[in-house]
Amino acid sequence: MAREEELCWSTLRATILASSGSTCLGKVVTHPLDTVKARLQVRIVAPSVPGGSGPQFRGCQPSAWDFVRSILRQPRSLYQGFPVAVAGALPAGAMYLTCYELFRPVCERRLGLVPAGGGSEHGFASTLLQVLVPSFVAGLGAEAVSCIFWCPTDIVKERLQVQQDLKLYTYSSSWDAVRTVLRQEGAVGLYRGYGATLLAFGPQTAANLAAYELLEAVARRRLHGPGASAGAGGRRPLPLWVTLPCACVAGCAACLLSNPLDLAKLRMQVVRSQRSARHGAGGVKTTDAIFRYRSVADALVQVARTEGVAALWKGAFFRCLCHVPQTAITVGTFKWLNQ
């Protein structure tokens, strides 16, 4: 019994270290792209409306690519919010990937999807069910737990990234942002949009890991034979040159599908609470008022109505550029280190 407990703790410790290191590495490499994505998503270019000009927004540029080029000419601004992003990624990333690794076998057993004998005898459809369902459910559960850390980190990071465009606050550092939010909005301010965060990140990360597990199972079948695609006993390590492409493809698909939810989540998080909001001079609406969405569904409807349906995928290109390598580095490195 003592030997089993020692092995269990050793495995858990290795999982925590691998998840922390891989998440931190992914953030270091891709943070500038995440900043460009965030600043694009809060940029409003409303279509012309007869008898009115639509929402007025400070810092609006005529061309999205002109806006991107102006951002790239300010290299220091690309790392706004970087310290808090890395600091938050360590516990949040460790909790997410560790919970996922713990939840997945439980989901397999509870759903009755563990293949008998550790083999895979029923073809692709059976493998699809055995891999996707427990991976998706485990991903959602892990996200619900890790959002305890992700949400405050995300709010501070995003506000620092977009503050020079919104001009609603002037935080001097990550710590100043945390203190100001706590003073002006209370502890609830750090969990603003928690439901939106869970709704945006949950399906994305769950779909991401589920797709990765499916691609990994297919790759394992090709490399090691049919009996190696399922079952804990049949899981043989895959080389890094296989795990990274699998993570890239899974990450790209998940990013494109969940971009509207991410845009709604970000806009709900970067505005202040109602008591801290203010209106511009002359009755011009500021972003606090423009982004005053009641829910994620209301945000999606309002964005589609005022800016066009295509606006729901604003920043999707840079989001893929950011999250695909980040996911590839994080998931691929985690799997490789954990194996």
Automatic annotation (TrEMBL):
Keyword Repeat on entry: yes
Chain positions of Solcar repeats: 10-106, 130-218, 238-339
Highest taxon in the source lineage: Eukaryota
Keyword set, alphabetical order: Membrane, Repeat, Transmembrane, Transmembrane helix, Transport
Gene3D superfamilies in the cross-refs: Mitochondrial carrier domain
Membrane topology recorded in Swiss-Prot or TrEMBL: Multi-pass membrane protein
Stored InterPro entries: MCP (IPR002067), MCP_dom_sf (IPR023395), MCP_transmembrane (IPR018108)
A Pfam family reported for this protein in Swiss-Prot or TrEMBL: Mito_carr
Record bears the keyword Cell division: no
Compartments, record wording: Membrane
Main location: membrane
PANTHER family in the cross-refs: S-ADENOSYLMETHIONINE MITOCHONDRIAL CARRIER PROTEIN
UniProt record similarity statement: Belongs to the mitochondrial carrier (TC 2.A.29) family.
Protein name: Mitochondrial carrier protein
Organism: Prorocentrum cordatum
